[in-house]
Structures are given as structure tokens and as C-alpha cells.
Design brief:
The chain is an alpha/beta fold and about 600 residues long. Helices cover about 45% and strands about 15% of the residues. The two termini are about 25 Å apart.
Length: about 600
């Protein structure tokens, strides 16, 4: 036995994307401004004032450029938002106060500006008036921009600069940053905050990058250059792993390799239980780059195409034509398998920076998804037309996210009818019979599923949101992750009610939330009568494996038990027992 290496340290968090990786750590520090207070000399006053004025001019130019782009892509009204920023920059009182501090107190420019700006922000934030409070947020943005220019700080951490393999550690990673990760260099990542079904975690699974979130203050404790092993099965980051630890993980990888072989043998086989119940097993995708993984992991088409990733990490909105090209490419490549395109679900934890939307107190309860689209008819129209046009290129279906009631559903359907009429008049082909569904991810929708079912052709249950909205537990917040329980009786009953309502009305119901990709929970969903499961491509083989080793009556007995049990942990334990009995080799890895 070799000596344990000095200083093995284990950090525990929430495992969100399976796999093990090891390598050097790269810590992404939050962009901060360090404002030092220097007393400048008399002779430096004029150059300091010049430096300050230059930073204002630079900021003005940057804001005008952004404003110009927004006006072009979204219209004058949206561009007007930046007038408030520009007006603040012109505010003579503010500028004079800064100049006074530089001249009379001989303060350096960043200290002078920061001092005055903070006073303004505090004053605005403390006023009992929504409009003025929003101006405080504007002032905050503006201050950061001016300080960036004064201190010559580049925009936030740029992941494109990573040029050697590493494990990324950060306080948080936004979904838009995660979507840009280069698998070649980012072996895995861990963050201080985050939850199991945050979109960052979902993307990590899609990208097949091991990830752990909610590791408290790991970004403060680790340093760039430290060596670590990240275990995405058990939610561990092990710094300076001992030889013993490395050996154990070597064994785990061997087990994994033999399981991979078994999984690849069933790739082209159907997802059918031992007693012949066929389950539609499809994949969740974010863009056209996911076509290959859908095929290579043996999914039957796409159960959820999260189109919002076409809208983020770019400077303007994608046009109808651009969207059409992408939808067409995916539909044609996967034909004759279906592709369910979900209309835009921006908001919550996914934002398009170029849309410059006002910050909300509760973004998950705010202007998100279908609410946002119905209020932005031009944006919605472009997407609906693009989807309809792509519907002749393959088996395209469409669904709306975040339906909370019948009116929203009717409004969305009316928009589709309007787009169809336009296309007919323009003689542009589309599939008149394209099936439209609703996501059921708000408790109100689950409770009126009978009503909604009469207006759609299918349901897709979005359990990621259904759980957070039912249990009032933010899906991105590690502090309430213990309350975010997929096996809570309330969730099981809502799923059952939705599935039963769908079947009573002659339509099918699937699940496209993350639990559909969990081999422990898939049997329960099948027992509850779910017709389709849609999961990230890399987890599809495991779900297929367990389905093929399961009997429908065992799954139904599990569902019966769950529907009559009051304890989430007991239900989960029973799910584990059933899953382990059906497919023990799936669980040897961890
Ligand atoms: C869900 O809420 O379960 C879902 C699939 O949608 P998203 O994760 O994109 O919110
Ligand atoms: Mg959702």
C-alpha cells in the first residue's frame, strides 16, 4: 500500500451529471471590481479627469451600439430602454459630483465615480416606487460598465480562452455559459450553487460532462492548478486524491466500460417491457448538434427540443428563416421518427442577453415561456411559421411550455391558426395535420387536464417545473434541494391525474422532465401509465435497458404502492428496490 498523499480533501455537493474525470482545476472567479482609494497629485488632476471623461465616452458608445442592435432586431420601443442609461451618463449633477471629488479631494477617478454612483443606487433602491427601483438596477449596470472601462476589465470570464483540459470550478455557471463549454477542454465542472434540474445541470447531462453543483464555497477554497477528481455519480470533488482513491475509481471505470458494452447491444432494440408493453423512448435536445447523439444513443426521435438555446449567446433574435433551417435540418435528419419542437421557453434561469429584459423578483413565476411569447406576437409568429414550414420536412410536432390555464392555450392555438392562414395565402407548404401538445408543468394545468386535453393532441409532463411549482422549491437553489422531491405523493398524484385525463380524452401523455431519464424512477412512471419518456441522449440507453428488464405488472404494483404511500423516502426506496432487482448491473457503477 502506498502512502496516502498529503491533503486529500473531499467536497460534497449534488451529483447532476454522471461520469468521473480528473485533472487540473481552473477556478472562474466572479468578476469583481477592486476599487482602491488613492490620493492623486495636483499635476495628475487634469489627466484623471480626462481618463474619467474618456470612460464615459467609451461607455456611451458601447450603450449606443447595443441600443442600435436592439432597435434593429426588436424595434424602437425595446431600444428605448437604453435611453435611461444614456440619460444617467449625461446627468450633470452626478458628473459634477465626481469631478468635485477628483479636484477637491484628489480622489482617483474610479473611487470618485464609485462613491457617487453607490450613493445614487442606494437612494434609488430605497424609494417605494417600482419605476425608481428599476432605475437603481439601470444605475448598477451603468456603474459596472463605467468601472470596467476605467479599470480596463474585459467582459466576464471568457471560456473561449481555455486551451488545455481542466475541471472548471465557479460560483455559478449560467445556462448560456454552459451551452458554450467545449468538451475538449472542460472535463467536468463544479459550482457553489445550483440544483438538480437547473438548466445548467440539464445541459451538463446533454453535453455528457460530469458535474456537481451546490458544493457550498468550493470556488473560494480551491485554487487554479490544484489536482482533483470529480465524481458526477456521487456528487464529490476530491482534491489531491490518494492512490487508494484513484485505484477505487479505476475499478468503477472498468465496471462502467462493461456496462457500456451491454447498453450498446440494445441500441437498435425497442424500449419494450418483458411482457410486451412498448414505451416510446425519445430524447431531449437543445440544437441541431444533438442530432447525432439522438441517433447514436438509440432514441426514437425527439420528445423535447428546447428551442431557447437558439436564442441565447447571440446578439440578435434568430429570424424565421434561420429557425426554419434548423428545425428543417433536425426534422429531416430524424425522419420518420418524430421531433417535438417546444415553442420558446425564455425566462426563469434562461435569458437572452440581447433582449435586455428587466430583472424580476421571481423570474420562475414571472414573464416566462408562453406568457412571454403571447406578449411578443411578432417573435412568436416568426417561430410558429418556422415550425409550421418545417413540418413538411419530417414528423414535426409542436408543444407549448408553461400552460397555466385554458385561455393561454386557446390564445396560442389561435396564433397558430393565424399563421396557418398566412402560409396558405402565401402558398407556402406546411402540414395541416401537425400535432400540437401542451406541457403540463404547472399544478393548475395538471388539475384541469381534462379541459386542456380537449384542445391538444398530447401532453408532455414537465416534471422539472411541476415539482418546483407544486412543492414551492426553486429548482436552481441547493438550499431547498432537500424539498425538491420527485417522489413526493403530491407529484405522483398529479402525474397520475394528468395521465388518466389524457387517456380519458383519447390522447397520449409523456414525461420529458429529468426524472424520465432516471432508471430508478422510470419504472414508476411506466406503472402510472405514461406512454412516452424523453431524456437527455446519454441517459437513454440506461432507461431502455431497465424497461427491457421490467414487467408491466411490477411497474403497476410499484405505482399502486406509491399512490397509497405518504412518505417520499419510502416511495423512493421502493423504486430503488424495483430498479435494482430488474437491472442490478446498472447500479454497480456507483
Ligand atoms: C420541465 O420543466 O420538466 C421541462 C422539461 O422543461 P424545462 O426543464 O426546459 O423547464
Ligand atoms: Mg419546464
Amino acid at each position: 500500500m502506498s502512502e496516502p498523499s498529503k491533503g486529500e480533501k473531499v467536497f460534497r455537493g449534488i451529483a447532476v451529471s454522471a461520469g468521473v474525470c480528473r485533472g487540473k482545476i481552473l477556478v472562474m472567479h466572479r468578476a469583481r471590481h477592486f476599487i482602491s482609494h488613492r490620493e492623486i497629485e495636483e499635476k495628475d488632476i487634469a489627466p484623471e479627469i480626462k481618463r474619467f471623461e474618456q470612460s464615459l465616452a467609451q461607455t456611451r458608445k458601447q450603450i449606443s451600439d447595443v441600443q442600435h442592435k436592439v432597435i434593429q432586431s426588436m424595434g424602437v420601443k425595446e431600444g428605448d430602454i437604453f435611453d435611461a442609461h444614456l440619460l444617467m451618463l449625461e446627468d450633470r449633477v452626478l458628473v459634477d459630483e465626481v469631478l468635485k471629488l477628483i479636484r477637491e479631494k484628489k480622489a482617483n477617478a474610479e473611487f470618485a465615480f464609485h462613491t457617487v454612483a453607490e450613493r445614487y443606487i442606494d437612494a434609488l433602491a430605497g424609494v417605494d416606487d417600482d419605476y425608481l427601483r428599476e432605475r437603481a438596477a439601470d444605475m448598477h449596470d451603468l456603474t459596472a460598465r463605467v468601472l470596467d472601462n476605467l479599470l480596463e476589465v474585459k467582459d466576464s470570464f471568457d471560456l473561449r480562452h481555455i486551451s488545455e483540459p481542466c475541471i472548471l470550478i465557479g460560483h455559478d455557471l449560467s445556462p448560456s455559459v454552459t451551452a458554450q463549454l467545449n468538451k475538449k477542454f472542460v472535463l467536468g465542472f463544479a459550482t457553489d450553487i445550483g440544483g438538480q434540474t437547473s438548466h445548467t445541470a440539464i445541459l451538463a447531462r446533454s453535453l455528457d460532462i460530469p458535474a456537481v453543483v451546490g458544493v457550498q464555497n468550493i470556488s473560494e477554497e480551491l485554487e487554479t492548478g490544484d489536482y482533483a477528481l470529480l465524481d458526477g455519480y456521487n456528487g464529490l470533488v476530491i482534491v489531491n486524491p490518494t492512490d487508494k482513491t484513484l485505484f477505487e475509481y479505476g475499478q468503477l471505470e472498468k465496471n462502467r466500460a462493461s456496462l457500456e458494452e451491454k447498453l450498446s447491444e440494445i441500441k437498435t432494440q425497442p424500449a419494450v417491457t418483458l411482457d410486451g408493453k412498448l414505451i416510446v423512448l425519445s430524447a431531449n435536445i437543445e440544437d441541431q448538434n444533438d442530432i447525432e447523439p439522438v441517433k447514436s444513443h438509440g432514441a426514437e426521435g425527439v420528445g423535447l427540443f428546447r428551442t431557447e438555446f437558439l436564442f441565447i449567446n447571440r446578439e440578435s433574435l434568430p429570424t424565421e428563416e434561420e429557425q426554419y433551417e434548423v428545425y428543417k435540418q433536425v426534422a429531416a435528419a430524424l425522419n420518420p421518427n418524430p421531433v417535438i419542437i417546444r415553442t420558446l421557453d425564455l425566462g426563469g434561469d434562461k435569458f437572452a442577453s440581447h433582449l435586455q429584459l428587466a430583472q424580476e423578483m421571481n423570474p420562475f413565476l414571472g414573464w416566462r415561456a408562453i406568457r412571454f411569447c403571447l406578449a411578443q406576437p411578432e417573435l412568436f409568429r416568426a417561430q410558429l411559421r418556422a415550425i409550421l414550414r418545417a413540418s413538411v420536412e419530417g414528423k414535426v410536432k409542436m408543444m407549448y411550455p408553461m400552460i397555466s390555464g385554458l385561455d393561454e392555450l386557446k390564445q396560442a392555438n389561435a396564433m397558430v391558426e393565424k399563421c396557418k392562414a398566412e402560409l396558405r395565402a402565401e402558398k407556402i407548404p406546411f402540414n395541416e395535420e401537425m400535432k400540437i401538445g401542451a406541457m403540463i408543468e404547472i399544478p393548475s394545468a395538471a388539475l384541469i387536464a381534462d379541459t386542456l386535453a380537449k384542445h391538444v393532441k398530447f401532453f408532455s409532463i414537465g416534471t422539472n417545473d411541476l415539482i418546483q411549482y407544486t412543492l414551492a422549491a426553486d429548482r436552481t437553489n441547493e438550499k431547498v434541494s432537500h424539498l425538491y422531491e420527485p417522489t413526493h405523493p403530491a407529484i405522483i398524484r398529479l402525474i397520475k391525474a394528468t395521465v388518466d385525463a389524457a387517456h380519458r380524452n383519447g390522447i397520449w401523455a409523456g414525461v420529458c422532465g429529468e426524472i424520465a431519464g432516471d432508471p430508478v424512477l422510470a419504472p414508476l412512471l411506466i406503472g402510472l401509465g405514461v406512454d412516452e419518456l424523453s431524456a437527455a441522449p446519454p441517459v437513454v440507453p440506461e432507461v431502455k435497458y431497465i424497461i427491457r428488464r421490467l414487467k408491466l405488472n411490477e411497474a403497476q404494483a410499484l405505482a399502486e404502492f406509491a399512490l397509497n404511500c405518504d412518505s417520499p423516502s419510502e416511495i423512493y426506496s421502493r423504486c430503488q428496490e424495483v430498479a435494482r432487482a430488474a437491472a442490478p448491473s446498472l447500479f454497480e457503477k456507483s
